[in-house]
Amino acid sequence: MRNPTCPQDIKPTRTADFHEILAVAKLYTDAVRTSNPECIHKSFHKDATMCGHIGPDFANGPVTDLLEIMKEKGPEPSLISHLHILSTTPTTAIVEVDAEVDTVGFRDHLCMAKVDGRWQVMTKLYHLYEKKRA
């Protein structure tokens, strides 16, 4: 019996897109780990934004703010992260980044769009935890 709500049996997202999406997210974590701004430029759209909480404070602004933070903090070689694709369509994706460095942890949601045939982060939503679980 055919499902009447799904008249065509078409896979919505190519497997290659999953690999490309995760590669962009990994570029972001590599940028944080190495403090390499070039990785941010490769993974984020030129007009990308970010917003989120650092403790009780909410902040938002252009992704260039992230470059300033990376410059100030320097490399984070102890960063460990886990990437998980939460959702995809043929032109959008949301990747969850769970990461820890030293005594803090953070959770980012990278909202991506496929622009000119290339996956790019459009918005970074984040929460910085004051402490990580021991």
Automatic annotation (TrEMBL):
It comes from the Eukaryota. This is Lumazine-binding. It comes from Penicillium roqueforti (strain FM164).
